[in-house]
Amino acid sequence: RTSTDRPLPVLGCDVTVPLVTGGEVTYAALDYAASAPALRRVWDDVAAYAPYYGSVHRGAGYLSQLSTDLFENSRRTVAGFLGCREDDQVVFTRSTTDSLNLLAAALPAGCEVFVFETEHHASLLPWRDARVSYLDAPRTSAEAVATLERALAGRDPKGPALVCVTGASNVTGELWPVRELAAAAHAHGARIVLDAAQLAPHHPVDIAELDVDWVAFSGHKLYAPFGSGVLAGRADWLRESEPYLAGGGASRKVARRADGGVDVEWHTTAARHEAGSPNVIGVYAIASACKALTDAGFDRLVERERELVARVRAGLAEVPEVRVLSLFGDDAPRVGVISFVVDGWNSSHFAAALSAEYGIGVRDGLFCAHPLVRTLLGGDTDDPGECGAPDAGPGERSLNAIRVSFGAGTPDEHVERFIGAVR
Ligand code: PMP
After folding, report:
1. What's the CA gap between 228 and 232, in Å, rounded?
2. Which InterPro entries did the record assign (predicted)?
């Protein structure tokens, strides 16, 4: 092995966990799609900054000034990481869910929204107060573009519209044709927001090159689990809407009126949507993760991950009872997120056994993408709930699935242990 295909150092790689069979083993975190471990470098940066932590923006003291600089520099770092255009704003939020809800609250009056039913609930649900068209699951990436084209063709291009699409599925790991979908949206006068929660940790995301209007992602999936997220993109809708939260920091000027009410002049910068004391540590951690991934070289990370995906797919293919879930087919490009079912097994029991007997942490359930998982499993009439499902006996259809996911910190041994355990 060359130094270019080693995992990046992360926290938790030497944590040992007890096994039900006796003894203990180092924990194999294979649930990166839910939350990735912190990069060691992010943790070190946060620890080095922590003693200097101070309130941002209005503090006159030295540490407040230092924290303000770090906070605003972090904004510039994230803008650089995402290849933002000159006029784009980077708003710090709590998560992808928060970012998309913020954008939903900023939609212009009468805005139409177009979203595939296959989206994560964070991308599927925030728009319900708008005029939403839910698009059927496409079975190829070309069909996704054609479906969107068809849906947009009927609309009045003069009215505002938004398309919301994932960059990489949190269920199948498959990449969506973002550039083509953006071109289709723009050709019909619509804007597009990219849910990059699963894409950004695995692939470079260039907002200008993809020509999307906004990008949303979460720190805790990008190796910075400190409670922050990002919404970056076009300033106009954000500037023209009511603030997401009303409060200090978002307001430039507040004054009592003669009639006893209160007049407010809101900021027109990102601060408009960042009321309250911001999560400075979380924001600093995101910027640190952006720098760490850029320094490591995304090409290397993408290449190594491709290799791990191929190994896991090959390992799973050797087990006849395993069925890997896929919307776009076996050859579709994908990130390190793979969901599957095992004939004759309840997925929750299978995942529990991986943990109890092998120290492997995966996830089971419907992955906050109920319509997609139901489509992939062949549809069902029962509601299996959040993750519970009745036992699927031999020959019976599973009502939920198992997801294994990995990334820049995953050592070969975790992947090999997983393949061996499934076998
Ligand atoms: N979109 C996708 C594709 C996701 O995978 C997730 C998290 N599972 C989200 C959005 C929501 O992210 P968060 O929980 O950090 O808000």
Report:
1. 13
2. Aminotrans_V_dom (IPR000192), PyrdxlP-dep_Trfase (IPR015424), PyrdxlP-dep_Trfase_major (IPR015421), PyrdxlP-dep_Trfase_small (IPR015422)
